[in-house]
Design a protein that fits this description.
Structural class of chain B: mainly alpha
Helix content of chain A: over 70%
Order of helices and strands of chain A: HHHHHHHHHHHHHH
Number of domains of chain B: 1
Number of helices of chain B: 10
Helix content of chain B: over 70%
Number of strands of chain B: 2
Oligomer: heterodimer
Strand content of chain B: under 5%
Strand order of the largest sheet of chain B: 1-2
Order of helices and strands of chain B: HEEHHHHHHHHH
Structural class of chain A: mainly alpha
Largest sheet of chain B: 2 strands, antiparallel
Distance between the termini of chain B: 49 Å
Shape of chain A: globular
Shape of chain B: globular
Chain lengths: ~260, ~260
C-alpha cells in the first residue's frame, strides 16, 4: 500500500510538470469542460425561466442533483480517465504486454499513467453548482450532513469508475471497447434529472442494471426528502462498493483471458 | 495458413470496431431521444404552452435540431489530425486544393451519416413521438435549403477550429470548447426565443444560430413567410463571411508551415 502511494505520487508529480509546461492547454481543457457543463445547466435555467417546477422538483433541486453528479464525475475524470484509452493506447499498440511484466498491478499502472487536467474543470464547476444550489434549498446543514454529502459524492465517483472499468475491460476480447464505453457513459445523461420523470422501465434499468441513478438522483434524494427515496438512498455507498468489486473481478478475468492468448 | 488467419482476424476485429461505433452512435441517439421526450413531457405536465410553443412543436423543434446538429461540423477533426502528425505538409504538395479535398471527404462522411444515422432516427422519432410535419411544400423546400446552408456554415466554422491545431496541443479541449459554443448559442437545446432578451441579442450577432436555430425554426413553423426568407439571407451572409475567413486564415496558416519547413 505504501509503495503504491509513493509510486502514485511519483507519477502525479511528473504529470503536474507536464501540465504546467503546457499552461495554455491546461487552461483550454479546464475552460472547455466548464463551458460544456455550463451549457447544460443553462438549458435547464432557460426552461425554468418559463415554468415553476418539473415533476415537483424546483430549479435548485435539479441543480443539486446535477452538482452531485458533476462533482462525483470529476473524481473519475481526474484520476481514472485513462481507462478510456485502454484499447487504443495499451492493447492495440502492445503496450499492455510491457506493463504485464512489471512488478506493479497493471490496473494501477494504467490508471496512474495519466492525471487528466480537464477533470479539474469538472471539479470546479461541480463545486460551484453545489455552492449555488445548497443555500437555496431548505435544508439544515450540520457536520453529519456534510460528512454524508462527501460520502455520497465519493460513492458517485466510484460508480462512474466502476462502470467505465467494467466496459473498458471488454477491450481484452475485442481490442478496443471504446464505442461501448462511450455509449454506456452517455447513459449518465439520464442522471441529470430526477429519475421520477422517466418511465418505470428506465428507472429500474438505471437502478439495478447500470446504476447511474446512484451517481446523482438517489444521493440527492437523501437530502431532499420528498420522493420517498430517503431510506433507499442510504444504499448508495454499498452500491458503489459492490460495483467496484464486480468491475475489478471482471477486469481480472479479462486480464487472464488476455494473458493466456499470449498475443 | 495461420498467418493469413491472423490477418483476416485483425481485419475483422477492425471492422467490428467501426460497426461498434455505428451502433454506439445509434444507441446513444435513441437514449437522447428518450431523455428529451420524458424531460419535455414533465415540463409540459402543468402547462399547455411555453412562449406560445406547444409540446408537439417543442418536441419537433428539439428532435430536428438534434438531428441537424449531427451534421454541423466534421472537417475540423481530420484537419487537426493531419496537422498534428505532419501529414499536412505532404497533403499540400499533392495536386489538389487541400481545403476542397477535406470538404469532399466530409461530404462523403455526411452522406453515410444521413443513411446510417439520420434515417433510422427519423423513423424512430416519427413512430414513437407524435412530431409535426411542415405545413407546406414551400416550407419543406425552404428548410432543405436553409439546413444545407446551415451545415456549410458549421463546416466552415469547424475548419477554422481545426486550423487552431497549428498553435495548440490540446486539440480535444478545443473541440469540446467548440461543441459547447455551438450547443450554447445555436439553439440546439432549446429555441432561442426562450432565451432571456439580452442573450438573444448577443446570439443574433453570432453565426451559430444560422447553423441550427434558423433552419429548424423554419421547419417547425416558428419562423414563416417573409421572416423565413430573411433568415435565409442572414445565413447566406454568414456563409460567405466564413468562407472568406477560411481562405484568409488558411493562407496565413500555410505560411506558418513554410516557416517550419525552413
Amino acid at each position: 500500500m505504501r509503495r503504491y502511494t509513493r509510486l502514485y505520487w511519483e507519477f502525479a508529480k511528473s504529470h503536474m510538470k507536464v501540465m504546467m509546461e503546457y499552461r495554455i492547454d491546461f487552461l483550454i481543457g479546464v475552460a472547455s469542460v466548464m463551458l460544456e457543463q455550463f451549457a447544460s445547466i443553462f438549458f435547464v435555467k432557460v426552461v425554468f425561466d418559463h415554468i415553476e417546477q418539473i415533476n415537483g422538483w424546483s430549479f435548485y433541486e435539479i441543480l443539486f442533483i446535477y452538482g452531485i453528479a458533476a462533482t462525483g464525475r470529476s473524481i473519475h475524470q481526474i484520476f481514472f480517465d485513462n481507462l478510456w484509452t485502454l484499447g487504443w493506447q495499451y492493447i492495440r499498440p502492445g503496450k499492455l504486454d510491457r506493463l504485464l511484466i512489471r512488478p506493479v498491478n497493471p490496473l494501477f499502472h494504467v490508471v496512474a499513467d495519466r492525471l487528466h487536467q480537464d477533470g479539474f474543470g469538472q471539479l470546479i464547476i461541480g463545486l460551484i453548482i453545489l455552492g449555488t444550489a445548497i443555500p437555496q434549498l431548505d435544508l439544515v446543514w450540520g457536520a453529519a450532513e456534510i460528512a454524508m454529502l462527501i460520502i455520497m459524492i465519493i460513492s458517485s465517483g466510484l460508480i462512474f469508475v466502476a462502470i467505465n472499468l467494467f466496459f473498458a475491460t471488454f477491450s481484452f476480447w475485442m481490442i478496443d471497447s471504446l464505442p461501448i464505453v462511450w455509449a454506456v457513459f452517455n447513459l449518465s445523461d439520464f442522471a441529470r434529472y430526477p429519475l421520477t420523470i422517466y418511465h418505470k422501465g428506465i428507472r429500474m434499468f438505471l437502478t439495478w442494471i447500470i446504476p447511474y441513478g446512484f451517481t446523482a438522483f438517489f444521493p440527492a434524494a437523501y437530502f431532499i426528502d420528498k420522493s420517498g427515496y430517503k431510506e433507499f438512498a442510504l444504499w448508495t455507498p454499498v452500491a458503489a462498493i459492490v460495483c467496484c468489486v464486480l468491475a475489478y473481478a471482471f477486469w481480472n478475468r479479462g486480464l487472464k483471458a488476455f494473458a493466456s492468448t499470449g498475443s | 495458413m495461420r498467418k493469413y488467419w491472423q490477418i483476416a482476424k485483425g481485419r475483422m476485429q477492425e471492422n467490428t470496431a467501426y460497426s461498434a461505433w455505428y451502433w454506439a452512435g445509434t444507441v446513444s441517439a435513441v437514449m437522447r431521444l428518450l431523455i428529451i421526450y420524458f424531460f419535455w413531457q414533465a415540463v409540459y405536465a402543468n402547462q399547455t404552452t411555453i412562449q406560445n410553443i406547444n409540446l408537439e412543436t417543442m418536441l419537433t423543434y428539439i428532435v430536428i435540431a438534434m438531428l441537424l446538429q449531427g451534421f454541423v461540423g466534421g472537417v475540423g477533426n481530420e484537419l487537426a489530425e493531419n496537422i498534428k502528425d505532419g501529414q499536412v505538409a505532404i497533403e499540400l504538395m499533392r495536386p489538389y486544393d487541400m481545403i476542397f479535398k477535406l470538404f469532399a471527404v466530409d461530404i462523403g462522411a455526411k452522406i453515410m451519416y444521413l443513411i446510417q444515422g439520420t434515417i433510422p432516427m427519423v423513423l424512430i422519432a416519427y413512430f414513437f413521438m407524435d412530431l409535426s410535419f411542415p405545413k407546406s411544400p414551400e416550407t419543406v423546400l425552404l428548410f432543405v435549403v436553409s439546413a444545407l446552408v446551415g451545415i456549410w456554415i458549421g463546416t466552415f466554422f469547424d475548419f477554422l477550429v481545426g486550423v487552431l491545431a497549428f498553435w495548440t496541443v490540446n486539440v480535444w479541449g478545443v473541440r469540446v470548447l467548440k461543441e459547447s459554443l455551438i450547443t450554447f448559442f445555436s439553439g440546439a437545446l432549446v429555441p432561442i426565443t426562450l432565451f432571456p432578451d439580452w442573450l438573444r441579442t448577443i446570439t443574433e450577432f453570432l453565426p451559430f444560430q444560422a447553423m441550427i436555430y434558423l433552419p429548424v425554426s423554419i421547419y417547425s413553423g416558428l419562423i414563416s413567410g417573409t421572416e423565413a426568407y430573411m433568415a435565409l439571407g442572414v445565413q447566406l451572409f454568414w456563409l460567405v463571411s466564413l468562407y472568406v475567413l477560411v481562405r484568409v486564415i488558411w493562407s496565413q496558416a500555410i505560411k506558418q508551415i513554410t516557416i517550419f519547413g525552413g
